[in-house]
Amino acid sequence: MRKKASLYNGQRVLIAPEGKQITRRSLLGTSVGAAALADQALAKTFCASTLVTEPGPFFPVKNMNFAADLAGGHNGGAQASGKLLYVYGVVRDGQCQPVQGARVAIWQADAEGHYDHPRAEGHDDLDPNFQYFGEIETSETGFYRFRTIQPKSYVAFGLNRAAHIHFRIAAPGVETMTTEMYFAGAEHDERRMNDVVWSSRPAPARESLIVESMLAVNKSDLGVEAEPGALACRFDIGLT
Questions:
Q1: Which residues contact 116 (CB under 8 A, 6 or more apart)?
Q2: Which of 79, 119, 138, 200 has its CA 20 to 30 A from that of 220?
Q3: Positive or negative CA dihedral for 42, 235, 178, 100?
């Protein structure tokens, strides 16, 4: 059974022989195509548990829909505003084995920084074409994939928040965990520097929550043909 994690527990800091920290961000390199190589490296060299964070104030109060597509736009319907983003990865257990049937849920702000939650600013100005949260089960290889949009940074209760996506993972034999995925890039880096919630996360473990956004051009990684110009982020999740 997984031990109960405190607010910022759940991360094993990994040190290379040279004494440098190894992070998911450094392994992913500079292209979505490199994700497959990074996946092999992770599986063969070490097993890292993902940093646990709190769910935040905007966890959905509505029923969580079992859906992988939050952006819509199919069969002639209108698509959500914003940049299309594919978020995908592999869920592994403490022995680095893929976890089949893990329930992965996400919730996030839309392209204007609004959450579908009664306590959130802008709740009365939501995107009618965007589904603000969804949940899926991992495949036999531990794989998950969501089609969503790039969230925007926002202000909540007077605090600046950098753009991020919340995750909740539930799997047999382990405690349900929540975490967050942040974005790399100069604009996002600057916003994180002014985000007191991000700053409260333990360093250097919090760096493993940052991922690169790349053009979604590698079908073998995503498992689907992405739309021209769509972005993709790989976020592998390690359970303990």
A1: 60, 62, 123, 126, 132, 133
A2: 79
A3: negative
Q: How far apart are CA 151 and CA 229, in angstroms?
A: 16
Q: How far apart are CA 163 and CA 11, in angstroms?
A: 22
Put simply, whether the predicted model's pTM sits higher than 0.90 gets the answer: no
Ranges assigned E (strand) in the chain: 84-92, 103-108, 133-137, 143-149, 154-156, 159-161, 164-170, 177-183, 210-211, 214-215, 231-234, 237-238
Domains annotated for the chain, with CATH where assigned, are 24-238 (2.60.130.10)
Give the pair of three-digit tokens for residue 78: 């209108």
Q: Over the stretch 120-178, which tens digit does the pLDDT of each residue have?
A: 998 889 999 999 999 999 999 999 999 999 999 999 999 999 999 999 999 999 999 99
Q: Which of 40, 44, 47, 39 is nearest to 12 (CA)?
A: 47
- Cβ contacts of 194 within 8 Å, gap of 6 or more: 160, 162
- Dump pLDDT digits (tens) for 26-74: 444 434 444 444 444 444 435 789 999 999 999 999 888 788 999 998 8
Q: Which of 106, 115, 147, 137 is nearest to 230 (CA)?
A: 147
